[in-house]
TrEMBL record:
Subcellular location: Cell inner membrane; Periplasm
Protein keywords: Cell inner membrane, Cell membrane, Membrane, Signal, Transport
Name of the protein in question: Sulfonate/nitrate/taurine ABC transporter extracellular binding protein
Protein family (similarity comment): Belongs to the bacterial solute-binding protein SsuA/TauA family.
Gene Ontology molecular function terms on file: ATPase-coupled transmembrane transporter activity
Residues spanning the signal sequence: 1-27
SUPFAM superfamilies named in the record: Periplasmic binding protein-like II
InterPro entries from the UniProt entry: ABC_SsuA_sub-bd, NrtA/CpmA_ABC-bd_dom
PANTHER family: ALIPHATIC SULFONATES-BINDING PROTEIN-RELATED, TAURINE-BINDING PERIPLASMIC PROTEIN
Keyword Metal-binding included in the entry's annotation: no
The keyword Signal is annotated on this UniProt entry: yes
Length: 336
């Protein structure tokens, strides 16, 4: 499959698996009629399948005639997962971290498809004198949150390949946190030396020229295998109305196939939709750069999610080793 494009708590213990990216749009909803549903997603590039499905009315195409489809845009993964659990939305696209968090906390939810993979990039400031990962010893790196998806990917790579860890576990690197949108300015101000960056912010930094790629997506831990987004629904809905869940998955698959077959049109849809929802535009050069680091795929491998959770535990972000058995249900992918 051609590679084409990213952006991921429930409790102090499990917040380490939370999503790292968020938007400024707010979630909201009203009581629904019996013949209407609501689908949720984030206005982020790695959620492009949601944007395409909305723009092309693919959910309406797959659902019974007359079904009204509403869309809800979320500021963070925890809000999304709460909406799924309460039935405020029937399902949609979210980062893998919040889905894992809520599942191990007892939520009756399932990942029924993936949304995209890839999009994490390790970058260094132009003035940091860093040319290889080994040069990070004694340096300061930034991630969106402690133990978030991108932090775990970076620290897993550094520990396994270079024997380096953060000061959090008596290691050699200083760790700070901040919003990815600020990384370019922090590089320029000399406040941090390196960053583990979700797209599209890596492409923003490249375009602005404030930093350079140190380790690109394929070489980052879980870089091409870990879902950057997953499609989630509730076990209650699955048991009550499996036909509806099948319709949702079929529309999601249709949107994903459209992205892979029509990348330029899909880019335009994503660019316009992000602008519409957030009132913040992304230049085409940034969209193009981010798109190249992502693989839009609905196939999901539960073993990768477990490996990622195990890595979080091994890095001491978690006190207990999580068991994700039962989180993924691929039956609807097989039936579609």
């Amino acid at each position: 499959m051609k590679k084409i494009f990213y952006m991921t708590a429930v409790g102090v213990l499990l917040i380490v698996l939370s999503a790292c990216g968020s938007s400024e749009s707010e979630a909201g909803g009203e009581e629904k009629e019996a013949d209407e549903i609501t689908v949720g997603y984030f206005p982020n590039i790695n959620h492009a399948a949601g944007m395409v499905a909305e723009e092309k009315e693919m959910y309406q195409e797959q659902l019974p005639d007359g079904t009204k489809v509403n869309y809800q845009y979320f500021p963070d993964g925890s809000a999304f997962m709460t909406a799924v659990e309460t039935g405020e939305i029937e399902g949609g696209i979210v980062g893998p971290g919040p889905a894992m968090n809520h599942y191990v906390s007892g939520a009756a939810i399932n990942v029924v498809a993936a949304g995209s993979k890839g999009g994490t990039v390790i970058m260094a400031s132009n003035d940091s004198n860093i040319s290889t990962p080994e040069d990070l010893k004694g340096k300061t790196f930034i991630s969106p949150r402690v133990g978030c998806t991108h932090d775990v990917q970076f620290e897993t790579m550094m520990k396994e390949e270079f024997g380096m860890t953060s000061e959090r576990v008596q290691g050699d690197m200083k760790h700070v946190t901040g919003k990815p949108a600020t990384y370019a300015s922090m590089f320029e101000a000399g406040k941090v030396d390196a960053a583990t960056v979700p797209e599209p912010w890596a492409s923003v930094i490249e375009t602005e020229g404030s930093g350079k790629v140190l380790v690109d997506t394929p070489e980052v831990a879980f870089g091409e295998t870990l879902p950057a987004a997953v499609f989630v629904t509730s076990e209650k809905l699955k048991e009550k109305n499996p036909e509806l869940v099948q319709n949702l998955v079929d529309a999601h698959k249709q949107a994903t196939d459209f992205i892979n077959e029509n990348p330029e049109e899909a880019k335009t849809i994503a660019q316009d939709k992000i602008k519409e929802i957030t009132d913040q535009g992304l230049e085409k050069e940034v969209i193009d750069g981010a798109w190249e680091r992502i693989d839009f795929s609905y196939e999901v491998d539960e073993s990768v999610l477990q490996d990622f959770a195990d890595s979080s535990y091994n890095l001491k972000f978690l006190e207990e080793k999580p068991d994700l058995t039962g989180l993924v249900d691929k039956e609807f992918l097989k039936n579609g």
